[in-house]
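Repro case for the chain-ordering regression, as requested:
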Amino acid sequence: MTRPLAVAVAGLGTVGAGVLALLRDNAALIAARAGRPIAVTAVSARDRARDRGVPLAGLRWYEDPVALAADPGVDVVVELIGGSEGPARALVEAALRAGKPVVTANKALLAVHGAAIAELAESRGVPLAFEAAVAGGIPAIKVLREGLAANRIQRVAGILNGTCNYILTTMREHKREFAEALAEAQRLGYAEADPSFDIDGVDAAHKLAILAALAFGRPVDLAAVHVEGIREVSALDIALAEELGYRIKLLGIAKREEGGISTRVHPCMVPAGAPIARVDGVFNAVVAEGDFVGRIVMEGRGAGARPTASAVVADLIDLARGRHTPVWGASNGALDPTPAVPMERHVGAYYLRLMVVDRPGVIADVTGVLRDLRISLESMLQRGRAPGEAVPVVLVTHDTEEAAMREALTRIAALDAVLERPALIRIEPL
Amino acid sequence: MTRPLAVAVAGLGTVGAGVLALLRDNAALIAARAGRPIAVTAVSARDRARDRGVPLAGLRWYEDPVALAADPGVDVVVELIGGSEGPARALVEAALRAGKPVVTANKALLAVHGAAIAELAESRGVPLAFEAAVAGGIPAIKVLREGLAANRIQRVAGILNGTCNYILTTMREHKREFAEALAEAQRLGYAEADPSFDIDGVDAAHKLAILAALAFGRPVDLAAVHVEGIREVSALDIALAEELGYRIKLLGIAKREEGGISTRVHPCMVPAGAPIARVDGVFNAVVAEGDFVGRIVMEGRGAGARPTASAVVADLIDLARGRHTPVWGASNGALDPTPAVPMERHVGAYYLRLMVVDRPGVIADVTGVLRDLRISLESMLQRGRAPGEAVPVVLVTHDTEEAAMREALTRIAALDAVLERPALIRIEPL
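-- result from build under test --
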């Protein structure tokens, strides 16, 4: 057996400790699959004294993660610090400049600076692997970039944030409002004290930007992603969705359209019978559609120390075996310059739920707005009657352009009889 | 861009024509992802005159597929002839001996002769790729062998034969008996005129033997696979399964047990809520459980020209990029000699359905047999009453060893009041 692959790990949070535990627990099996042992030789973290449940004796310790890049006893740098700026970015860039392959779980860094980092990696001829950056233990990046590489991908979509999926699942199963479900997720450690990164869709947008770049072989373009989170999803809309045969999921969707690629993250109504509708709790799922392969669905654990470690070490085994792939699947010069399609041009069906005063003429006013904008209705649902009081009214449209729908929303919200901001949820025929 | 990768295709049936169509339709995209063009330069098939819907002009034509191995203008041989013996085997061995990488969709060849072929490939240092051999367009081999490579796999299971899944789905949805559903599958081209290879579980066994070798890093061992097909599944059992909250699927299951690896293909009752229970029609699914990644589920099209071509060309792209992996994930010397566990030692719950004469004492006789063999019952279901006539009785056991269950079956079948051969279906807690 050849010399071990010497690995430095920067960041010893739960994922970093998981990587160390995995490399120790499955060392023999990993050596067989990698063709050589994989050994951690150096680490960097903030607090040297903290007990992480894995022994660190014998490893070189660095206060400054960037110093790992210069250690001549390190073959590969694993970056698990996180964040699109600061030490994570500095370390990744320093390692690539030093000619050391990098494995990272950092979706923010790749979504924000991925284009420049991919160019740096290519210019130095150094591999950069990031299976752990999207969908945790699901090998979504390998499947898109290698397994489906022969396909012209038409769509890639997924449940990419376990926190949001847990909250939406809890709201549906226990008929809770968003704030209650969020508080429970926080108690269980599924949501951060400041949850905005997850619940506002930012994390899912980072992952979608990466998936879209891989699926369509184009430079990562986070700015083009339309992002809405789940704060405004109500228990009422989840119950009404159920009545209509849908489930509400926060999806990231990248799609090849006439004129370019659309990328968006927002709550969606998906048919209750679709495979992705049943992916509940903290699980993630990725759906990809290619012109030859048809539709592939993958599901699994999207986060957590052990699934994420599985992805990080798979990348290390690829590196040990010499299996290299350009960051976005093709060299930077061969990427496709297909433009982004703005959200205003999205076409699809919409669910619109209003609270209106139950009095004659209200429905006529509302449907008049839709008629004026040439928006046609598939169905309308009015629950119960309570003359003079507030009742919910649901309108489901046929395919409509987003720009028209936004205008309709503005006009309808301005009607006297409409009592609060209407809820708008896009219907996705997955 | 570098010189094209010159490919020879042996076998121009639907899959071979699909590979040619894919390489033509997506040539630019494939060249970008492969880092160089992939060009077919030679082909071999029986009937030169047949119209296959793809142009063959300019390609060298060989009557004898084995001659492709000797063509100096061929870098890679794609074997799509099929069958474990004859020209397919001769071509694969000749190509490897000539130092030419091989891509094959041939599960029978790998299941029967995979150990020797892997040794030949390794001894010559030549890659052998076979993504298309299992689960069609689902990149199950890449996921198991590379994506989950860091995991100690506990179980891999799947719906591996689309013909059987189509028949079982039709039986359930349209309340048909097996023979009717088979005839419909034959009319639609989902089953062969001689369907035994599919419906007797042989094809699924080939695929399971390959998956087990990959999952557990051990030499392929087809002889160890316990195989039962779906001929004896009845509409009555499908309806009773539904009542009990199960679906009947033909599964291939490989599992790490105390003392070794069990591999089996047989009809299973799976909980109706399990992801795999909803994979219907010609779709395939693969479930893998690893110690770090947890459970990963993949589904997609398991057969057909286009999904299979997607897998074949993914292998070609891997070869063009220089991404190589040993056949079973580790070199032959590093494979795990974990023994096989025989079916008699399987432990699980069983569904047993009898047709009995409805008269006093029958149930006491049946349950007496189970008591004598220390088999404990979870539930019993007797439908309707018809004194003196035949009625179905369903018994569901707690975990029981296969050997005891077989003995019980023999004794129960010998009881006077038991009218036909009892139906036995294993319950699988997926």
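Ordering looks correct now. Chain B has a mean pLDDT of 95.
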